[in-house]
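hiii, so i know i said id send this last week but things got crazy w the move. better late than never?? heres the sequnce for the chain we talked about at the cafe, plus the structure i predicted for it. fair warning i was half asleep when i ran it
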Amino acid sequence: MSTTGRGWASDVEGQFWEIVDKAGRVLAVFDHQRFHRIMSGARVQFWDENGDGICEHVQSAADVDAIFSIAASDGNRFGWGAKKVLGAYVVKALSNGSDTPEAIRPRLAAVRTGAASGQGLVTVTLLRDNGFVI
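okay and structure toks below
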């Protein structure tokens, strides 16, 4: 079962670093050689696709939040499950290089416009209609 979440990167002096919660409990681990730009102590968003405890995708939480803020600007808010879908897509796309923040922006603008013309709600359907599919 896949797991997505947030925590802090912790250098444990090896190839695999931990992602911990505020209390220091280990949430997952990741291969720092794959995600070498992540610094110890950085707030991160992660996705463990297969539930084995080793993250396939890790990104700076600040970068993910910047993308969330584009979709949810103009008074829009996220509907049930939409933030999880967008977060998982962004973490995966940025981790494997299949998308860039610059390439995502026009699609996020379309999501923002679509949400504003509806009930101000960013939905899973609206995200999928604009290519944010995990």
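btw The helical segments are 61-71, 82-96, 101-117, 124-129. thought thatd interest u
miss u guys!!
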